[in-house]
Amino acid sequence: MAEIKELEKTELKDGIVLTEKAISEVKKIRTENNIGEEFGLRVGVKGGGCSGLSYTLGFDSEIKETDKIIEFGGVKVVVDWKSILYLAGTTVDYTDGLSGKGFVFNNPMAKKTCGCGSSFGV
Hints:
Blueprint: E1 16-18, H1 20-32, E2 40-47, E3 53-60, E4 68-72, E5 75-79, H2 81-87, E6 90-97, E7 100-106, E8 112-113, E9 119-121
Parallel strand pairs: 1-6, 2-5
Antiparallel strand pairs: 2-3, 3-9, 4-5, 6-7, 8-9
């Protein structure tokens, strides 16, 4: 299905996709802030926000044995077992367009989202 713009050849792993732009930005942030390789990029979901659930994204050195570790182009992504249920099919991208710059979550499981795009409901 060419409609997805091929996501710059980034593959779907355990229900999550990181685009090449997202991978590049994570590496840039890691370098600019001297963040060591022992830190993984934790992608998650927590309760809150105007639609019920919010996305979380940050570097974390504490990896639990119940966490799922997925590698994208040299970036170690860590997802806790509860969050992976809400992130199935989600694409994490990075945008630097006219309406702002930042990481964007495109989640097909989200039934409703807020105006700012940082929270969702299922």
